[in-house]
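step: validate -> pass
step: tokenize input -> pass
step: predict -> running
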Amino acid sequence: MLRSLTNVPRDYAWGSPSLLADLEGRTPTGVPEAEVWFGDHPGDPADVAGGGTLDQLTGGTLPYLLKLLAAGRPLSIQVHPTKEQAQQGWARESALPLDDPRRNYRDDNHKPELIVALSDRFESLSGLRPIPDTLRLLDRLDDAPGVRSLRERLTAEGDPLGDAIGWLLGGEAAREVDEIIAAVTDAAAGSAGDEHPALRAVAAIAESSPGDPGVVVALLMNHLVLRRGEGVFLRAGLLHAYLSGLGVEIMAASDNVLRGGLTPKRIDVPELLAVLDTTPGEVPVLRPSGDESVTTYPVPVPDFALRRVALDGSAVELDVTGPTMVLATDGAVRVTAASGAELDVPVGTAAFATAEERALTLAGTGEAFIATPGR
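step: predict -> pass
step: emit ->
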């Protein structure tokens, strides 16, 4: 079976007013458009051509959630739980209604995710920077009391990053947060901003979220800029935030988010720290090969797999396993299933093939992303 999928963009405040409209070649709506969900998650199942929603076809069993994501301003800093943490959190909160603002867990699943850039520049914060590198960055700031306090915490014994994040978000460091933000803003406006793009990125975050302690948390994180076709995998426990750009995102079918700043929503600091992996380190960028029509993005989880297909007019045949989506992101894409069913897939929409379709053929010109369960 082959079916067309669409959905209405979600109007989160951080969304872009133009990126999704430009992708689809339509007039902007005038409001932020943040995400388009292609999945069967009960939070927003995709619409199926001819009527109904995808969960009615799948029974809500799809292990992954595929999205278009358009960030016009920074998303909240966040982390996702492991499966065990999600199951335990879901059980602890079982007495709370699903819409209760005290809830941290919307389901009992983990949420590893992969983002691949569609825009020429996709900016993100991914993981905690090695402490020696952050200390060198702090050396470029004025020696304000707040900067000294942060440096002292980062050079202490134990879990310095966890302790620093708890201190920043716990409400007792408001004066120090303001002093650090002021020092970052001053440094970013000078030569240090040219030498250290991360300082300019954090100063821009401060402009959109003035006084938010998450701005200083951002200062502790790796600043990544992805180019079109490049991706980054975000495992459970890894602190991250997308700052700007358009991308294709795939994740385990979950909506579990623990927030760590840059948001008016509730931040449960103890639960955040319980889920957060404070091990610092660089996060590798997954780069496509320049001479292949099919690019894979290896991920260490069984929930999903993602391939990028560049179409130049020749047909590309793909073996697939399990329920599969073909998301068109450029040009004119046509999908033919093993059963002989055919669909044109307009840019910004997806084709869904049920599990009995063991192979798909893509034709046309442009680009598509193929989502399947992992192996």
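step: describe -> The chain has a mean pLDDT of 95.
step: cleanup -> pass
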